[in-house]
Amino acid sequence: MNKKEIIKKIIPHLNPKKNHSKGIAPINIALCKYWGKRNIELNLPVSPSLSLSLPYYTKTEIILNDDKDFIYLNDVLLSNENNFSKRLINYLDLFRPKNTFFTIKTYNEIPTGAGLASSASGFAALVFAINDLFEWNLKKKYLTILARLGSGSASRSIYEGFVEWNVGKKDDGMDSYASKIDTNWEEIEISVCLCSDNEKSVSSTEGMNRSSETSKFFQTFVMQSYEDFDDIKNAIAEENFKKLGIISERNALQMHSTMITSSPGFCYFIPETIKIMNHVWDSRKNGLDVYMTMDAGPNVKLIHRKKDNQLIKKEFSNITSFL
Length: 323
Ligand code: PMV
Prior knowledge:
The chain has helices at about 5-10, 85-95, 120-135, 140-150, 205-215, 220-240, 240-260, 270-285, 310-315; strands spanning about 20-30, 35-40, 45, 50-65, 70-75, 75-80, 100-110, 160-165, 180, 190-195, 290-295, 300-305, 320. By secondary structure, it is of the alpha+beta class.
């Protein structure tokens, strides 16, 4: 089954109802990671994941034109041969009516392609804009499926707050969608220690495929992820910060262990990453309640309580504010 066949099951028509539309979506940081696909074409996961959306956004506009596609990233016109443009144009092709071209203007509040989940907010914002352009008024559940076809983690960026993405069993993935976790718990903050904003050398898709195909630790990661997912959900229900921190940090490190043990091995950490990791462990020994998570890039995201914002900023001088 390919993406076009899935999209046909979801969208009612392909007639744009306006010439100009907009979408906005937050980045999300996974506390229980998505790493490994049971279907590569449809971005179907092998294990459930859970994230927290952060107040950093991608805003995307679509303008119809009848000439060619134009892709702007943060006000800069990109070549259509650029990797970012190619990925976007391939995705737009899934929704393209005959003889129609798009101008896409996308603004990221955070660096693109540095493991800071900008592809997640990017595809989610694009899906909101496409839904607006065609006036489909799709339920969010279906928007999460459309976003997943762009980038797996984008399914979770359709919502604010804590979000879960279930694995599903069906081959067509219609039962693998994201949903918002019902809670009023707002105690948690995630702060980004920016170690590098260079684009990653191994894409997340390439990385997760290599890990799942070659790392002997991969199955252990998957089995543990199911447990971690339930435990983090319970921690949210109990509003138990320490439990959430411990499990999230361990889940991230287990994901990274599948990368180092792949053949050929790879690692997103740089010396600055390791320095901050040690700093987190030392700070915890000294009584500061701080945990960490890392994605497909070198940057460290600190998980802490909002009430500790000042203490954390003082302790970790390299925290970056993107706004
Ligand atoms: O959605 P992708 O293909 O960019 O993969 C995201 C993978 C991680 O960020 C490492 C984990 C996650 O769950 O977001």
